[in-house]
Design a protein that fits this description.
37% of the residues lie in helices and 15% in strands. The strands form two sheets. It has a six-stranded parallel β-sheet with strand order 2-1-3-4-5-6. A six-stranded parallel β-sheet has the order 9-8-7-10-11-12, sandwiched between helices. The longest helix has 16 residues.
Length: 336
């Protein structure tokens, strides 16, 4: 990393911590704050001592002291583009309800916007072209490959596929339960393991009962170490979302050398086009056919698919070190 003539002080607001203790956004902010500490020229301090405030969300109104710069991360434009996939639907937009109600004014009053994908940046420009704040795309990173795995004894020796995180709404998790019907009659079919995302919902339980899937599905609340083990041992990772701003499971599966099947949306092509198998998010028949196929013949790992050198290079591209480095460079650009 290039050297800078002076260090800068950065503060992360605590908005996201009041909304979720776990989740992709929380992980991003915590990983960034921790990893920045290794870079010369960036100090993470309290808000009152900072020259730059990095906002983790869009709640309320932007607050900064005179002379402070404000940078805000844009995760996605899904609530604005797909309102019907959220509770209250279009009423949220019309009456400015929910956690994204102040997103437009917050972004417009920032000195710079970090978008976690080119897809989200383009969506912002299309939805709110009046916002002329500079946008800088910085892809997310992960260190899951460095986490010491912890075995889930109930799955040790079992074949299984993996679905990570929230499953409701635009995450399209119900379709994976419906697609499991394609392997229902195979005695050696892999389990579908849902890691995180909470216990099965009533709607999920109804499907499990209706399709007689109870022997084929499992749900676990897992630690980071257990998740690392799941990624390393699964036969495939599923990411069937209708919309996303990035999708951490794509790069987590890549870095753990697990095959990935994801929905055919713009951001998945942007992030995982080189290694993930992409299927239309609404085509249940194609997902069912894929599950039946990979039950018989598992997919190649990313390392085998890309070759070891290309796989290593791509995994390094999605590292926390690269993510923090690009943030640090942007902070210096804003302050100088």
């Amino acid at each position: 990393m290039k050297s800078y003539p002076k260090s800068i002080s950065v503060a992360f607001d605590k908005q996201i911590e009041s909304k979720q203790s776990h989740g992709g956004i929380t992980r991003y902010i915590r990983d960034l704050e921790t990893t920045l500490a290794v870079f010369h020229g960036v100090r993470v301090v309290s808000k009152k001592d900072a020259s730059l405030i990095h906002a983790s969300f869009y709640t309320g109104r932007p607050k900064r002291l005179p002379g402070q710069r404000l940078i805000t991360t844009l995760y996605d434009m899904t609530p604005e583009l797909c309102p019907d996939m959220f509770p209250l639907g279009k009423l949220r937009l019309k009456f400015r309800l929910g956690s994204h109600a102040n997103k437009r004014s917050w972004l417009a009053n920032s000195d710079a916007i970090v978008s976690i994908s080119n897809t989200s940046a383009c969506d912002l420009r299309n939805v709110w072209p009046e916002i002329q704040v500079p946008i800088h795309t910085i892809h997310l990173g992960t260190n899951i490959q460095a986490i010491q795995p912890k075995t889930l004894s109930s799955l040790d020796g079992r074949r299984f596929w993996l679905l990570v995180g929230k499953r409701s709404g635009y995450k399209n998790g119900l379709m994976m339960l419906e697609s499991m019907r394609s392997v229902l009659d195979y005695s050696d079919a892999p389990l579908l393991v849902a890691a995180g995302g909470g216990s099965w919902s009533r709607q999920e339980l109804r499907l499990i009962e209706e399709y007689k899937l109870s022997h084929l599905v499992r749900q676990y609340q897992v630690s980071d170490a257990e998740l690392a083990w799941l990624y390393r041992r699964c036969e495939a990772v599923f990411v069937p979302s209708h919309a996303e701003g990035f999708s951490l499971p794509l790069i987590e599966s890549l870095c753990c050398n697990a095959p990935c099947i994801a929905s055919e949306i713009s951001v998945h092509a942007e992030v995982g086009g080189a290694f993930a198998q992409l299927l239309p998010s609404k085509s249940k028949s194609e997902w069912m056919e894929m599950l039946a196929d990979i039950h018989q013949k598992p997919l190649p790992t990313p390392k085998n698919q890309l070759g070891e050198q290309n796989w290593t290079h791509l995994a390094e591209r999605y590292s926390l070190c690269r993510m923090a480095k690009e943030h640090a460079e942007l902070y210096h650009t804003l302050i100088q």
